[in-house]
Amino acid sequence: MTLELVYETHATTVDNEQGVATGWLPGLLSARGRAEAAELGERRRGTGLAAVYTSDLARAVETATIGLGGCGIPVHLDARLRECDYGDLNGCPRDAFGQRAAHIDVPFPGGQSYRDVVESTQSLLDDLHRDHDGERVLLVAHSANRWALRHLLDGIPLEDLVDAPFDWQPGWHWTLS
């Protein structure tokens, strides 16, 4: 059994541009983000995708819809691809967080921990591996999910991921067997 997994971070939001940590709030793509979502579609159309799975938060759904809507690839919304729930800090300035590593195992007040995101991501991977054997699947999600994937699939400790600078690239790829 093999699964080719392609991951893309949702496009830039108004909150990203303003330094706000959206968390479980919907978020809205900025003009730049809408252009990035269209570029994602150009990169991914015609690459043999069997399905797209996206976070059910509005900014990820909007990214997938702009990029791949109407091209015949099934798009599935899945809450297991949500950003970390920052609880009381959803919608706060990113500077209010301090070190994210403090929340690897300790939930944000009223929210969840990054380890919780890893568990949700693992659950999704288990289902994808079962349901999409031999296929290529695109995930559109958030930073916490990318950290979870890199932790689960590349063996990188969460402590090395959560406070590292974001180094955008046009997708991450894994083959699971």
Features:
177 residues; alpha/beta; Rossmann fold; five-stranded mixed β-sheet; two-stranded antiparallel sheet
Indicate the topology.
Layout: E1 3-9, H1 14-18, E2 20-21, H2 31-44, E3 49-54, H3 58-68, E4 75-77, E5 92-93, H4 114-131, E6 135-141, H5 143-154, H6 158-161, E7 172-176
Parallel strand pairs: 1-6, 3-4, 3-6
Antiparallel strand pairs: 1-7, 2-5
Describe this entry's structure for a reader:
With 177 residues, the protein is of the alpha/beta class. The protein has a single domain, classed as 3-Layer(aba) Sandwich (Rossmann fold). Helix content is 36%, strand content 18%. The protein contains six helices and seven strands. The strands form two sheets. The chain has a five-stranded mixed beta sheet. Strands 2-5 form a two-stranded antiparallel sheet. It is globular. The N and C termini lie close together (5 Å).
Please outline what is shown here.
This protein is an alpha/beta fold and 177 residues long. It contains six helices and seven strands. It has one domain (3-176): Rossmann fold (3-Layer(aba) Sandwich).
Give the name of the CATH superfamily: Phosphoglycerate mutase-like
Structural class: alpha/beta
**String of helices and strands:** EHEHEHEEHEHHE
Order of strands, widest sheet? 4-3-6-1-7
What would you call the shape? globular
If you consult CATH, what is the topology?
Rossmann fold
* Level-1 CATH class name: Alpha Beta
The major β-sheet equals:
5 strands, mixed
Distance between the termini: 5 Å
The low-pLDDT segments are: none
Tell me how many strands there are: 7
What is the average per-residue confidence, as pLDDT, rounded to a whole number? Answer: 96
Number of domains: 1
Helix content: 25-40%
Count the helices. How many? 6
**What is the CATH architecture annotation?**
3-Layer(aba) Sandwich
